[in-house]
């Protein structure tokens, strides 16, 4: 069992997170996580298409997400970008007619790819599309992802395939996609330069939300967009240049038997957690 040592003060959180990062931010600890599906694509144009597909399916059990996304990517071959550019909507619907992942069926996947096709033909890449919508505001990640989402809709993507960043939801899957494409380390493959890591918004799921609330990062009662901003700001204070750096290792709690979430939170929060405050 991993030992965290002495209970740190709040100012020591970064040292604790850095220790976790050094220990667990490794490829050997990735499976099952959909980010593993992106490692085989050396061209950014292929990786961004694969990443958006993986993000669209990133709900439910991780192992099932990997399984279903793998099925789609195997059909697409070595170049997902080339695949979507070379198929019509009718052809895409035929190829994926038997696909099903929870609420996402083959028609939805075909629609997603057709929307991607239209964006690629108009802008040249998903990144160039997203970058066109980035202004000088403090929420550049939201601008980028909203512009991309609207462009995909305009080119035929069904609105149900991805969460709508214009609504109050945390849009975890879209900000997860952005994290994969912007950050670059042992886990996140990167490839985009449209944003800096410091400008990303936390891909807030229920697991990270529960940790964030325990750490006092937010007092929101639901994992909505405002909560995602709270959590982002909390981690930005710990690591201003890369607030999402510890996302992967924190998601290992509840997955790895040698990482105890309760112990971790008690150490982070000290007696406040033990007293139930």
From TrEMBL:
InterPro entries: CHP02757. Pfam families: DUF2400. This is TIGR02757 family protein. It comes from Thermovirga lienii (strain ATCC BAA-1197 / DSM 17291 / Cas60314).
């Amino acid at each position: 069992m991993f030992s965290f040592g002495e209970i740190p003060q709040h100012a020591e959180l970064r040292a604790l997170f850095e220790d976790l990062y050094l220990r667990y931010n490794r490829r050997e600890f990735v499976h099952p996580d959909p980010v593993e599906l992106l490692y085989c694509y050396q061209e950014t144009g292929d990786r961004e298409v694969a990443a958006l597909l993986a993000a669209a399916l990133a709900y439910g059990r991780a192992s099932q997400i990997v399984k279903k996304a793998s099925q789609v990517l195997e059909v697409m071959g070595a170049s997902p970008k080339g695949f979507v550019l070379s198929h019509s909507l009718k052809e895409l619907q035929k190829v994926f007619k038997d696909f099903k992942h929870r609420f996402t069926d083959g028609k939805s996947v075909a629609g997603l790819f057709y929307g991607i096709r239209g964006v690629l033909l108009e802008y040249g890449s998903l990144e160039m599309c997203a970058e066109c919508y980035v202004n000088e505001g403090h929420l550049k990640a939201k601008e980028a992802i909203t512009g991309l989402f609207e462009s995909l809709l305009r080119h035929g993507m069904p609105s149900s395939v991805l969460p709508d960043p214009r609504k109050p939801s945390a849009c975890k899957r879209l900000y997860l996609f952005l994290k994969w494409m912007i950050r670059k380390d042992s886990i996140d493959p990167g490839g985009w330069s449209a944003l800096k890591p410091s400008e990303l918004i936390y891909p807030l799921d229920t697991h990270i939300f529960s940790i964030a609330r325990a750490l006092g990062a937010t007092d929101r009662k639901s994992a909505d967009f405002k909560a995602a901003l709270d959590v982002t700001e909390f981690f930005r204070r710990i690591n201003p240049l890369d607030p999402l750096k510890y996302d992967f290792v924190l998601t290992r709690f509840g997955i790895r038997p040698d990482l105890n979430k309760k112990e971790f939170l008690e150490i982070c929060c000290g007696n406040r957690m033990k007293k139930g405050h």
